[in-house]
Amino acid sequence: MARKRLSLFIYQHVLEEMRAGTSARAIAEKGLASRNTVKHIKEKALRLGWLNPAAAMPTKEDFLRAFPAPVMPVQVSRVERFRDRVEQWAASGHTPQQIFRKLQREDTSFDGSLGSVKRFLNKLGAKRPEGFVVLHFEPGEAAQVDFGSGPILPHPETNKPTRTHIFVMTLCHCRHAYAEIVWDQKVETWLRCHRNAFEFFCGVVGKVIIDNLKSAITRACFRDPMVQRSYEQFARDYGFQISPCRPRTPRHKGRVESGVKYVKGAFLPLREFRHLADANQQLLEWLLGEAGNRTHGTTKEMPLRAYAEREKQALKALPFPRPDTYTWARAKLHPNCHLNFEKSYYSAPYAYIGEKLEVRAGERIVEIYRDDHLIAVHPRATRVGSFRTIDSHYPPEKVAHMLKGPKWCLEQADLVGPKCKEFISQLLGNRVLDRLAGAQGVVGLARKYGPRRLEAACARALEFENIEYRAIKSILEKGLDQAPQAPDRSGQLHFKFHEPPRFARDIGRLLAVNGVAK
After folding, report:
1. How many CB atoms lie within 10 A of CB 511?
2. Confidence class of residue 67 from pLDDT cuts 50, 70 and 90?
3. Quick check: 168 and 177 in contact, CB under 8 A?
4. For residues 177-208, b (16+ Cβ closer than 10 Å) or e, as one string?
5. Which region, left, alpha or beta, applies to residue 448 given φ > 0 means left and ψ of -120 to 50 means alpha?
6. What are phi and psi of 63, to 5 degrees?
7. Is 160 exposed, middle or buried (0-12, 13-18, 19+ CB in 10 A)?
8. What kind and span of H or E run contains 168?
9. Measured on CA atoms in the order 325, 166, 243, 228, is the torsion positive or negative?
């Protein structure tokens, strides 16, 4: 085996020690070179007269002539015979790992290693990986957040296997993490997971480093990113700064991406989940157990211990009382005076039909704005497809019929008289046919004919057991409400006038005299 050439600095250092009178054993004990090497240097220096302290130190060229570089045996790379293919793959941008696996699959005679492929590519002048700066964070300074793909679980609404997502927030200093499995990546879910993470850590970090996902950034731009309106308000309420990563630079969020990868690789395999709640319970136990108490590969300490000792007390206090989380959206008001938000329907004044309105949805209420002016407030729908309606949002002429219900009809009839109320009660009491329109028409006749005549018409209709709107209308049009009533069971005729006839004899006595009534 050829002798390894020492660096020029070592030769100079050894010679200086010799000129100072240091023995070869002492020089070797300092770790500069072995005793045999020191002996070899001493013999050559003695012949060249370099050991005289009074003489000048040899130059670099003198050392190179005295100790020439050893001739190294030429070794042929095991990748050399695959040069053409490897050059083509490297030019296409494939990584050394991909090229190594490709050679293993396509040629069984290949016996090289991944290192041999890397060395061969370096000799070819292949592009080396770019260097990057390692970011260091103080306790409580920052956390990184991202989503990753989660397990497939049965959806509670459809019971079909559905792909879930894993939310991960990692504290940058101690590497302690919070994770949660969710169904979607909506803004509302994004905010809820942030709140759950801060409550899990018992505090808020100063800065949250995020990827440019739509739940947080509506326009990804290195110079002027545009933050989602709901997330901006949430950050203001909780007191942290949003720090978007530079687009297409994944190294800026290496901690959280490693955290997502760690969760997917260490937690998900060989586990069974019955439903979402079961999966999150197992995940929480794993975070506080195995994940939190492992020795981290970079920090060389347990994340949970570092969190308890340094980072927990550095976090800012949670806001009290807990702020409500709101999501903003834009929705069009349709001709039915409702807009669609999260698969439910909320009414707004008919004057804004066709316009795009702003929807601000909280956990319990939904507010609708037009040009920053509040125009409607509704309780939050708890079931998809449900309607939240305020009747005054409809045009008055369209909603009049709906507002005049059975209760209203009975109240109006009671103002007319007992017979009218009895008639309306029987009219609405039909178990086969909805007679609300007829009841509305009956009480409406009071405006034309007056309550007194309507009361008399209802009494006549009740006497003849003709419980219909057209009967009342016909009686009033023909003036039958002022005509004599039908004979009662005694056989006597009863006449009813709005005013007693002047200069007339008593009708009952007159008929009795003429033998009409016994």
Report:
1. 13
2. confident
3. yes
4. bbbbbbbeeebbbbbbbbbebbebbebbbbbb
5. alpha
6. -65, -40
7. exposed
8. strand 161-171
9. negative
186: left (phi over 0), alpha (psi -120 to 50) or beta: beta
Q: What gap in Å lies between CA 461 and CA 413, rounded to an integer?
A: 15
Angle, vertex CA 387, rays to CA 383 and CA 390, nearest 5 = 140
178 Cβ contact partners less than 8 Å away, ≥ 6 residues apart? 168, 169, 196, 197, 200, 201, 287
Q: What fold, for 142-314?
A: Nucleotidyltransferase; domain 5 (3.30.420)
Tokens of 166: 């894993």
Minimum mean pLDDT among 239-253, 255-269, 453-467: which range?
A: 239-253
3-state secondary structure (DSSP) of residue 226: strand
State the residue for tokens 């009662």.
488
* Count helices and strands in the chain by DSSP H and E runs: 20, 14
Cβ atoms 231, 327 nearer than 8 A: no
Q: What angle do CA 373, 377, 378 make, to 5 degrees?
A: 155
Q: pLDDT tens, 185-198?
A: 988 899 999 999 99
* 467 or 108, higher pLDDT: 467
pLDDT at 277 over 60: yes
Axis crossing angle, helix 469-478 with helix 436-444, rounded to the nearest 10 = 20
Backbone angles phi, psi at 243, to 5 degrees: -125, 90
Q: What is the pTM of this model?
A: 0.58
List, in order, residues 6 or more apart from 324 with CB less than 8 Å away: 362, 363, 364
3-state SS record for 320-335: CCCCCCCEEEEEECCC
Contacts with 397 (C-beta within 8 Å, 6 or more apart), sequence order: none
Helix spans in 223-275 (H)? 229-238, 254-262
Contacts of residue 436, defined as CB under 8 A and 6 or more positions apart, other chains included, come to 405, 406, 409, 428
382-438 per-position pLDDT tens digit? 898 999 999 889 988 777 666 678 888 999 999 999 999 999 999 998 878 888 889
Tokens of 199: 């409550």
Residue keyed to tokens 């770019």 = 130
pLDDT at 181: 96
Q: Where are the alpha helices (DSSP H) in 113-263?
A: 114-124, 187-201, 229-238, 254-262
Question: Which residue did the predictor score with more confidence, 173 or 71?
Answer: 173
Model confidence at 379, pLDDT cuts 50, 70, 90, reads very high
pLDDT at 1: 39
Domain boundaries, the chain: 8-66, 80-124, 142-314, 327-395, 404-478, 484-518
Q: Which residues contact 394 (CB under 8 A, 6 or more apart)?
A: 337, 347, 350, 402
For the CA atoms of the chain, what is the radius of gyration?
A: 47
